[in-house]
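Re: [ENG-882] Designed sequences occasionally contain unexpected residues at chain ends

Forwarding the minimal case from QA. Structure tokens:
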């Protein structure tokens, strides 16, 4: 039985190129785009992973947080209090994201901000709703959060259509 060493020595360029292409293809296929939400503040973090390494980390305020900051002063959060929860993860192998527990939270919060922007609501009422939403988010009561925002949006739609 012959060893592969003479073959590798003779064709080292081809073998090296094959190994390089295999490594690049493996890295490309393992890449994923991830979105997470901080359950304590509502901030959104996006990043990409390649072979388990994170890069391109970007943390930004959500539309809800920008809207809420006009009515409620955000509490400062320390590094210990940050609790990121995965919202979605898209990759080449899985172009749609699996249904994570927090999958609908950013959309639900944005619906609240849009409904509040489009209709006039007294600032005290908005502040009370925002505090309730933030408490639901912190306590991970996501079904209650969805029901609360859906009822609020429906009230704003009815109020807007019934206006003279």
């Amino acid at each position: 039985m012959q060893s592969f060493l003479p073959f590798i020595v003779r064709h080292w360029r081809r073998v090296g190129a094959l190994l390089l292409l295999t490594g690049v293809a493996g890295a490309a296929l393992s890449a994923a785009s991830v979105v997470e939400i901080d359950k304590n503040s509502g901030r959104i973090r996006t990043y990409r992973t390649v072979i388990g390494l994170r890069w391109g980390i970007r943390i930004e305020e959500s539309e809800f947080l920008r809207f809420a900051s006009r009515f409620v002063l955000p509490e400062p959060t320390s590094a210990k209090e940050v609790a990121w929860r995965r919202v979605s993860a898209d990759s080449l192998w899985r172009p749609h994201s699996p249904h994570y527990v927090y999958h609908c939270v950013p959309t639900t919060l944005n619906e609240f901000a849009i409904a509040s922007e489009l209709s006039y609501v007294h600032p005290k009422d908005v502040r009370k709703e925002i505090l309730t939403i933030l408490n639901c988010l912190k306590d991970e009561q996501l079904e209650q959060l969805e029901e609360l925002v859906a009822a609020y949006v429906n009230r704003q739609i009815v109020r807007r259509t019934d206006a003279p």
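QA comment: On inspection the terminal residues look reasonable. The chain is about 50% helix and 20% strand. Proposing we downgrade this to a documentation issue.
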